[in-house]
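Exercise: predict the fold of this chain.
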Amino acid sequence: MAPHLEAQAELFTPLYERALSWLGKEVTEPGLIVDAGSGPGVVSTLFAETFPGARVMAVDGSAPLLERARQRAERLGHGDRFGTLAGELPGVLQQLDYPADLLWAGRSLHHLGDQRAALAAFAERLAPGGTLAIMEGGLPSRFLPRDLGFGRPGLEARLDALQEEWFAQMRADLAGSVDEAEDWAALLGAAGLRHARSRSFLLDLPAPASDRARSYVVATLSRLRDGFGDSLDPGDRATLDRLLDPQDEAGVHRRADVFVLAAHTVHTAVKPV
């Protein structure tokens, strides 16, 4: 998954840059930034670039992904103030040498069974006055017009419904899973944090898609087609097969109206001094 995770994060870099710029207006001169659930470190190195005076710690359960993050930081000239920490969240954060001034969890919290307890653990590792920022929610991505010219219109809306069912089952299957209303401001408040705020950031890559954007669309639709299996309507599976056929002029490899439009939401709160 590492190349896919890197390619996705790199494609979404404009969105992340806007989010980090917004954070930079609220978090001034942080000493330690922790990226909790960093994966291969694309966003971690963006933090190093955005906050040139900070030390950045990438934290993840996958040592191979963290090695890619370390190599990326070295390649980009941030290696002298970039560290990695391997272990399962949130417990591994107890191994940090000192509290974080900014702790970022970008679409990683929903992989933890008890999100309320995880937020409390995140808050515990913040320095007084430190900021917790989580990226969760937003809007489903869109790649194609509602009517493709073949198949039943509204394919992506039906894929969204299947994705919601998959997400709910994924959450239910997590160890220690707890149902929780996703009122992030209330959950951040329950973790003892104050001044909760939310803001959404847009990625708008209009048609005609670049080769990199097109590759991301192909990878995403392929994963959905293969992952949903028998849950897919037979007609929608046939539509996806045609969309993913490199030789089909109406497929995503060739059609001129492919785009990428997505919105992610960041929620922040501050630990009282």
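Check your answer against the key: The mean pLDDT is 97.
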